[in-house]
Each structure stands twice: as C-alpha cells, then as structure tokens.
Design goal:
The protein is of the alpha/beta class and 391 residues long. It is built from twelve helices and 13 strands. It is globular and about 75 Å long.
C-alpha cells in the first residue's frame, strides 16, 4: 500500500487509507458481478447474495455472534441506532443512556421524549468515565432500553460495558451498544458481554467504505423491534405484509452490495490481522499522544489519560487558540488531518467542560506510524510556541 502524502489523524471520523482488499473487493463486484442479490435466480444474482452471506459471516466471527442472520446490514451506525431506539421505545416507557453519547443516540431519544418516552441521561465524570451503579440506580419499572456508547468519540474512554450488561440482564432490560468507535479496533463478544443490540459502522475501524454498517439483534428481540422501513426484500413476494423473520424484516430495498463487498473485505482484514494485535498497536500510538501532548506547556489533554482504558482518540486544547485555528494550522502548515469542534456530541463536551468551542481531536488508526505521531507532536509544540510569541 502506498503511504499517503498527508498525516491522517482523523480515523474516528472515517478511517483512511483502507486496505487494498477493500477497494479490490468493491472493484470485483462492479466489474464482474453487479447484480441484485436475492431478486433473481441467475448466477450473478446468486454471487451477489453470496457476498452478503460472507460479509455477515465475517462480522459474526468478529463480534462473537453464533448466527450471522442476526446481523442486519444498514448504511451506518446512525441508522442502526435509530432502528434500535425507535423500534424498542414507545410513549410511556423509560430509557437510560449517558451524558457521553453521540447525537446518533441523543437526537432520536430527544425526539421520542417529545412523544412521551422518558429519558434519563446518567452523568459521567469530567474524564468521561461511567460508574455502572449509576445505571442501576436509574432503572425504573417501565425501563425498556439501556443504550450506551462503547467508547466515547470525544475522549476515547471505554465504558464498563460488561458490568452494565450484567445489570441489564439481571433486570431483563435490553442492552444496546453504540460500537462506532470500537468495532474492529477493540475486542467485542456479544455473547460474553451480554449485548442484546450492537450498532456498528463499516467505514471506521472495520476499514470498509462509507455508507455501510449493521445492527446485531439478539434472538427474540425481533418480536418487539419494529422496522424503520418496509418494502421489497426478495422474499415472500406473494405477500403484501413485511416478512417477520431475520434479517429480511429490516432489510427492505436493494442493498448497497458494492459497499457490503468492501465491508466484508474490511472485516476479514481485521480478522486476519487479529483484533488484539490491532488494539495493541493503537494503544501504543495513543500512549504516545497522551504523554507527548501532556508534556507540552499550554496544552490541556482531556479524558482518563490512560491508553489502556481508551481507544485511539485523544482530545486537547491550547490556551489562547480556538480548536478551529489549531486544526487549520495543522492542516495548512504541517499536512496533518484532525477534527475540531463538538464532534456531534455536545452533551459529552458539556460533561468534560469544553463546551461550546470543543476540542481538537487526534485519532490514530492501524495504518498510523509512530513517526506520524512524532511529527504531530512536534507540530503542536510549534503552534504553542508561536502563539506565545504573539501574545
């Protein structure tokens, strides 16, 4: 793979570069397959259907899921979360979440709140940490869903998913995880962790293309979970009623098969590298960022400050400079890609005390080199030095 001409530290928004396998699988579909899966009986349609099957198989292996048909293919984690949240909640019931959630969780919940769903957002610490007991304290007789980010997209803090999963199962409450920042980069076992609904995106640490993702639905929950959309599925075409079986109940319309081909290739890449190995490399890069930024006077680093307890996301600010100014300098002068602002998670920034301007977020990935981190740290130090001289 050819090394990019820029230093890309925006993998939390979308990973780049992608493995060669990703675009090669997509090109193979476009050049040699191209047909609609499940809509015809000819060989190309069957081959397209096989791509969907193999992608589900790879994802199931990654996430400790026994039955690949429990995975619904979607456009992204946002669609998956909307499916889970709108499908499980109705007026008169209660949902528990946290103050560190992305708007993909908060906006659907706030919309449902206006329609009579009660929402409790449990407060996290200023480092983005969650006490699982606070979740248990918030449980009510009408609590019907607990939805929690696996790792914060702002500070990277990994949440106590196992502990919350045990609490949810003990109270027989469905447990939904937003794995946008962990799927492919952090070990996930739905069975061991007692996850009932796992929402993930394909274009981040699964190294697939944008416009791909999925939702794992534990067996039995489809009886309670309404689909977001209804229509043609290629199955039960004689009926005008939506199929009631997985995954067809939730997969209406022609799928993004070329994207799914890339997603499957990305998932198999993660399996081939080994998620523990990917995690170990990213943990080392995260430690470099935390220690390096923390040693620069005038730089404030947010989060738990422990690479073992967060994914490869590090947020910081510089005294007297706005996040937008810092990001612009990193890009224009040093060729370093980062992301400023509120990161679609205003509640999280209120929690860590960085609202309304937000932070600068540096997010490494599996293809990030230690040399890239060293250059980024040197660039931040130069920006800090220059800002002091201007004062």
């Amino acid at each position: 793979m050819k090394k990019p001409s820029v230093i890309y530290l925006d993998n939390a928004a979308s990973s780049w570069p992608k493995p060669d396998e990703t675009w090669q699988s997509m090109e193979h579909f476009m050049r040699s397959v191209g047909a609609n899966p499940g809509r015809s009986g000819h060989r190309l349609s069957i081959e397209a259907g096989r791509i969907l099957i193999e992608t589900r198989d790879a994802l199931a292996e990654l996430f400790g899921i026994d039955n690949p048909l429990r995975i619904v293919l979607t456009r992204n984690a946002t669609e998956s979360l909307n499916l889970a949240i709108y499908g499980m909640l109705h007026p008169g019931v209660h949902c528990i979440t946290t103050s560190m959630e992305h708007n993909s969780v908060m906006r659907p919940l706030r919309a449902l709140e206006k329609k009579g769903v009660e929402v409790t957002a449990v407060s996290c610490s200023s480092k983005g940490e969650l006490d699982p007991q606070e979740i248990e304290k918030a449980i009510q007789n009408n609590t019907r869903l607990i939805v929690l980010t696996h790792a914060s997209n702002v500070v990277g803090t990994v949440m106590p998913v196992t502990e919350v999963g045990e609490i949810a199962r003990a109270h027989e409450i469905p447990f939904c995880i937003d794995a946008a920042q962990t799927a492919g980069a952090y070990p996930i076992d739905c069975k061991k962790t007692l996850i009932d609904l796992l929402a993930f995106t394909g274009h981040k640490s699964l190294y697939g293309p944008q416009g791909t993702g999925g939702l794992y639905i534990r067996e039995g929950l489809e009886e309670k979970l309404d689909p977001l959309m209804r229509g043609g599925t290629g199955s039960r075409s004689e009926s005008q009623e939506q199929p009631d079986f997985m995954p067809d109940k939730y997969e209406s319309g022609t799928p993004n098969t070329v994207g799914v081909a890339g997603l499957g290739a990305g998932a198999r890449f993660c399996l081939a590298q080994g998620v523990p190995q990917i995690r170990a490399k990213e943990e080392g890069l995260t430690r470099m960022l935390i220690e390096g930024l923390g040693s620069i006077p005038g730089v404030l680093v947010y989060g738990c400050g422990d690479a073992e307890r967060q994914v490869a996301i590090v947020s910081f600010t510089i005294t007297s400079l706005s996040p937008s100014e810092i990001t612009m300098e990193l890009d224009e002068e040093f060729g370093i890609m980062s992301r400023p602002g509120l990161h679609c998670a205003p509640a999280a920034h209120q929690t860590i005390g960085t609202s309304p301007q937000g932070t600068v977020r540096l997010s490494a990935g599996y293809f990030t080199a230690e040399e890239d981190i060293a250059v980024a740290l040197e660039a931040v130090e130069k920006i800090v030095t220059r800002s002091r001289k201007k004062r």
